[in-house]
Amino acid sequence: MSTAAPFEFYIDFDNTITEIDILDDIIQRFSINDEWKRVEAAWEAGEIGSRECLEQQFAQVRVSGPVFEDYLRTIRIDPAFRPIIALLREKGIEPVILSDSFAMIISRVLGHHGLAGIRIVSNEMELVGDRPRVSFPHFHAICTKCGNCKTSHLIQRNRPMGTRKIYVGDGQSDICPAGFCEILFAKGRLFRHYSPLRKDCIPFQNLGTVLAELQRILK
């Protein structure tokens, strides 16, 4: 079944699909010292970008593979995410997760909820012993704020004329890409940024609102 006009769908992960910010929780739970607080303050002040912030913070994290896997099994996702994915697939729209988190974390969490196979564009991480090794394959030097330049994934795609891009997010790393999308669902910092600028910005607190609006938009 196809919709009247082509659509693309992009969604953030931490605190959008999930009920918490997983990266913040991991850093607080598994850091060997409080150095992460100084780094977080520097990031909040705009003195460093998220790549440098995550590199420094995860350098202080120590967690074994089994403990980490058990932790990821506890992560809950918004109950409306599964029906959103079902709706998009019914309409022939590929959902894309754009995240400044790490693919290992995202794929494990989704897998635990039976949601494998969703396209993920994010940073990368592996555990070497009990130490996370992080990398940033989508970092762009012209962007000083994000480890993963989400905007680049939107502007690089060839699309039919009239394609409408849908974006769902909540944070700092969503501000730039959201500006390139015709339909915007926003909460948290993203909503505070765009609510004075875009009268069509759709506020949400959970994905139930997003699901209801998508059912209307895509019918």
- Per CATH, the architecture of one domain is 3-Layer(aba) Sandwich
Number of distinct beta strands: 7
Counting helices, strands and paired strands, the structural category is alpha/beta
Question: In one word, what is the shape?
Answer: globular
Mean pLDDT: 91
The helix content, as a percent range, equals 25-40%
- Going by CATH, the homologous superfamily of one domain would be HAD superfamily/HAD-like
How would you classify the quaternary structure? single chain
How many helices in DSSP terms? 10
CATH top-level class of one domain: Alpha Beta
Low-confidence stretches: none
SSE ordering: EHHHHHEHEEHEHEHEH
Describe it:
- With 219 residues, the protein is an alpha/beta fold.
- It has a domain at 7-20 and 78-128 and 135-217: HAD superfamily/HAD-like (Rossmann fold), CATH 3.40.50.
- 39% of the residues lie in helices and 18% in strands.
- It has ten helices and seven strands.
- It has a seven-stranded mixed beta sheet with strand order 4-3-2-1-5-6-7.
- Strand 6, helix 9 (188-194) and strand 7 (202-203) form a beta-alpha-beta unit.
- Helix 5 (81-90) packs parallel to helix 10.
- The chain is globular, with a radius of gyration of 17 Å.
- 31% of the residues are buried.
- The model has no long low-confidence stretch (mean pLDDT 91).
